[in-house]
Design goal:
The chain is an alpha+beta fold. It contains 8 helices and 9 strands. The chain folds into 3 domains: 98 residues, ADC-like domains (N-terminal domain of TfIIb, Single Sheet), CATH 2.20.25; 50 residues, no CATH class; 49 residues, no CATH class.
Length: 254
C-alpha cells in the first residue's frame, strides 16, 4: 500500500489524536477549557477575590486583605502588593503593585478605586494584561526574609570574649540604658573597662584631639553608619545634627 503526502498527514493526525485520548489527555484537544470547568480544591492559598470575567462582578474574600506598599528588597523601592491573612496577620504572598510605575506600565492612577487593583490581576476586559504588575524574585524573596528563623528581632549583647561569637538577647530598655549611660557593661565577664555612653560623648566644646583641632569636638566620636535611603536616613541625619557629630554615613557615602 502506497501513501501520498496528503494521506500520510491525515493518518498521522488521526493516530496522534487517538494516542492523546488513550492516555487521558482528551482535554488537551480543546482550544480552551469547557465552560463547566471548576478548579480543583487540592491545595494552594486562598484567593483574595473572585472576578466574573464576563460581568466584572467582584467578590472579596473576607479572610484576606491586601495592602499596597513599597518593597525594601533592594535600593529601587519598587511598589509591592502584600496579601495577608486577616485573622492571623500572616503574610501569604508578595506581588507587584499596579499603582506603581516601577511595577507596570501603564500603571493605575493613584486616584483609581482599589477595586481596579483586583481587576489588574484578572481577565475582565483584559485588564490583567494591561495593568498586570510584577515583582522580581528578590522582591518576592522578602517574604522569606521576614519569616527567616535567623532574623534578629531583639538587641544582642556580647556574652563572651571578643571574637568568641557568643551573644545574649537583652531588652530594648536595657539596650537604650546602656547605650545612653554607658558604664562597666561587661563586668560579669571580668572586664572592668568603663565604656562611655552617648551622654558622656556628647561634648561639643572639648576638642577630640587638641593637637589636631580639625577633628572637631568630642561629639564626633559618634559615627552613624546608615543603610539604605528608604526614609529612615532623614531621621538619622536630624539626630546626628542635633547631637553635634558630623560623622553621618549612608549607603552612598564615599
Amino acid at each position: 500500500m502506497r501513501l501520498d503526502r496528503r494521506d500520510f498527514l491525515k493518518l498521522s493526525a488521526l493516530v496522534g489524536a487517538t494516542t492523546l485520548s488513550g492516555f487521558g489527555f482528551s482535554n488537551f484537544l480543546y482550544a480552551q477549557s469547557p465552560p463547566t470547568f471548576i478548579p480543583m480544591k487540592n491545595g494552594g492559598r486562598e484567593l483574595e477575590a473572585k472576578i466574573d470575567p464576563f460581568t466584572g462582578e467582584l467578590v472579596l474574600n473576607e479572610n484576606i486583605f491586601m495592602r499596597h506598599s513599597s518593597c525594601l528588597g533592594c535600593y529601587s523601592s519598587c511598589g509591592n502588593r502584600v496579601k495577608l491573612n486577616k485573622k492571623t496577620g500572616q503574610m501569604l504572598s508578595v506581588s507587584g503593585n499596579p499603582f506603581s510605575p516601577s511595577s507596570t506600565q501603564p500603571h493605575l492612577s493613584l486616584n483609581s478605586p482599589l477595586k481596579d487593583a483586583y481587576y489588574a490581576t484578572g481577565q475582565y476586559k483584559n485588564l490583567g494584561l494591561t495593568h498586570r504588575a510584577t515583582l522580581c524574585a528578590r522582591g518576592q524573596g522578602t517574604l522569606e526574609t521576614h519569616y527567616d528563623p535567623y532574623r534578629i528581632l531583639t538587641p544582642l549583647k556580647r556574652a563572651g570574649k571578643r571574637g568568641s561569637g557568643k551573644w545574649k538577647p537583652i531588652s530594648w530598655q536595657e539596650a537604650v540604658q546602656e547605650t545612653v549611660h554607658g558604664g562597666a557593661l561587661f563586668k560579669e565577664l571580668g572586664e572592668s573597662r568603663e565604656i562611655e555612653g552617648l551622654q558622656q560623648i556628647r561634648d561639643t566644646k572639648t576638642l577630640l584631639d587638641s593637637n589636631q583641632p580639625e577633628f572637631g569636638s568630642k561629639a564626633n566620636q559618634l559615627a552613624l553608619l546608615g543603610g539604605r535611603g528608604d526614609g529612615r536616613t532623614h531621621f538619622a541625619a536630624r539626630f546626628a545634627s542635633a547631637y553635634g557629630t558630623v560623622n553621618m554615613f549612608t549607603h552612598g557615602s564615599s
